[in-house]
Amino acid sequence: MKELTGFPTKEQLRDMKRREIVRCAAKRFGQDGFENVPLEAIATDLGVTKAALYNYVSSKNDLLLQCYEVGMDRLVAAVEAAKDTSGTAAQRLSAVLEAYIMTMTQSDMQYLWSYTRPMVMYGDKRVVQAIRDKLDYAVRDLLIEGMKDQSFRPDIDPKLASLVILGAVNWVGIWYRPDGPKRADELAQKIAREALYGYLFKP
Amino acid sequence: MKELTGFPTKEQLRDMKRREIVRCAAKRFGQDGFENVPLEAIATDLGVTKAALYNYVSSKNDLLLQCYEVGMDRLVAAVEAAKDTSGTAAQRLSAVLEAYIMTMTQSDMQYLWSYTRPMVMYGDKRVVQAIRDKLDYAVRDLLIEGMKDQSFRPDIDPKLASLVILGAVNWVGIWYRPDGPKRADELAQKIAREALYGYLFKP
DNA sequence: ACGCTTAGCGACCCATGATTGAATAACTTG
DNA sequence: CAAGTTATTCAATCATGGGTCGCTAAGCGT
């Protein structure tokens, strides 16, 4: 995170506004679906008019793209950070899953998957695939490592297991509501534990 | 399945057409997303004009509703049937998951979840919730039964476990492509086995 | 063959929402 | 302060797509 000291320059001010637009759009896109959010709505949320947005984004699709990139970057960053902690592979994978869930349950990240479809339709589907693969391989690699360091069962099929694990954690993003009774952090912990339980090595 | 013998009556003919419309629409809605499918496209697929569709459905939302109901009925029927087979609870739950996956990977069922959002927005959200709950409870009940008949571990948290299991199987519907290399039936079997592995009782 | 009903077609109507451009307010710089 | 630059707004423009209406033609019972 880059902190600002002193007054923001014009450039910074501009970039702050742009990011605020993206954050707000991501939230709405996630809540209501890309196609159901008129630019008007985003503009109103921010207290400006629709036309003003065009100073910062070149089109609605461009805005979608930016939402996706920002979101996915956050996700990947969270996962990478958790991956590089210390401990057994199992402990690290658990940390990765928790970080993943924590990120996905933030209000402007919810339903991130829900706008992968428009992304694939209007944008570059290789970007989507690349990011999805990156997450998939992070999980697989840790599973393989864990079979070596004996924190996981030795007989896992990493490809299959990563599908099941990712399914479980992504599903959280579908039903979780930030205004619900569950706290995100303890939920993340429970789900992560649950999803990995069957793979742990038990002597 | 009800078979027809002899010539279809006018009523039957009409109903066949209506169902064909729904099937076709479900496929397109799933592939491209409800909001991205003009009625014109569905009409073209069927070789008629948009206006003709209005003989069979009262609005685009009505069509969505019918798609959802038909799809969910199929899903629930498949699950109920599998639930009532014989064997241990673990075996039955495995059968349920397989049936679930098999159903969800059919081409006009793919991305069924992808139009729950429009359903919730334009339709009756209680219907959606009710069906989701039904599936959830089917899984939970079998888990509980399995703890009793010792086909599952005795220390499962059924609520949490059902989330993980449903996540895993629903995720299949997101990435599976009918034209891909995997056969749906063996995939269903593998995923079902994988998702349950950690819960099985191992003496 | 004659009217009646129904399916389907083509041409419309109309609201929505993305995008643009001219006009204006605000701010910077010399 | 005046000229120039930037941020916003307001008022079009334009395409899309849901929904409607009147017409034709085929099917059917009498």
Automatic annotation (TrEMBL), chains A, B:
Keyword DNA-binding: yes
InterPro entries: Homeodomain-like_sf (IPR009057), HTH-type_TetR-like_transc_reg (IPR050109), HTH_TetR (IPR001647), KstR2_TetR_C (IPR041490), Tet_transcr_reg_TetR-rel_C_sf (IPR036271)
DNA-binding region per Swiss-Prot/TrEMBL record: 38-57
Alphabetical keyword list: DNA-binding, Repressor, Transcription, Transcription regulation
Gene Ontology MF annotations: DNA-binding transcription factor activity; transcription cis-regulatory region binding
Domain HTH tetR-type: 15-75
Organism, as annotated: Sulfitobacter undariae
Superkingdom of origin organism: Bacteria
The keyword DNA damage appears for this protein: no
Entries under SUPFAM superfamilies matching the protein: Homeodomain-like (SSF46689), Tetracyclin repressor-like, C-terminal domain (SSF48498)
Name of the protein in its database record: AcrR family transcriptional regulator
